Amino acid sequence: MSLSPEILLVEDEPAILNLLEFTLADKGFGLRKAMNALQARSAIDAKLPDLVILDWMLPGESGVQFARKLRADPRTRALPVIILTAKAEEPDKVMGLESGADDYITKPFSPRELIARVNALLRRRTPELGGERLTVGPLVLDTARHDVRVNDQVIALGAAEFKLLRFLMAHPERVFSRGRLLDQVWGDHAYIEERTVDVHVLRLRKALAEHNAEHLVQTVRGVGYRMTGND
Ligand code: CA
Fold first, then answer.
1. What pTM was computed for the model?
2. How far is the CA of 125 from the centre of ligand 1 (A)?
3. How many whole angstroms from 193 Cα to the centroid of ligand 1?
4. Which of 18, 52, 112, 129 is deepest in the core (most CB within 10 A)?
5. How many C-alpha atoms does 126 have within 13 Å on its Cβ side?
């Protein structure tokens, strides 16, 4: 399991797809590629990415039509989407309520602008990926350093437990079902069994217990799990 955000690139022009890939891979993002809406759909069905960069003009279903469908589906409603447009297309059309995009980038784009837009959107929409400090009760998670501490002592966690904790700490006091956690943390609700979540919660609690902090991850019977800073 990768800790870096994963981006799905949907673009039919190979030269632009390569430029996107080169620019983003250089910054450590995980990448998957699709050349039309159909491929993008099966990529998303298999595994939820952290962000989608979507070309407007695709053969077959357009990027805007596809973005609208993503917004209509509860599983992908909150998925951050950046639309790529050619100069001739009007920004206000792209950003209109009906398009479903969070942001847009006009081609030709500079690599620096692309990275800045992607990072800004990730910070805004997925706080657990934003390169910040998250604090819940005595726990402090540093996303840039990839560590979690209690009273300045580092808690030893596996990659999956770290990612799970990071997600829960970014959304404290909210209850998440196992299915939702699989989607948001593992990016996959179709191929991984829900009891996988229980296994990792158990490991996470065991690690937290060594620092007397296991009570921060609560089981909500019949619903799922919640992170709480309140004792
Ligand atoms: Ca195109």
1. 0.71
2. 26
3. 37
4. 52
5. 26
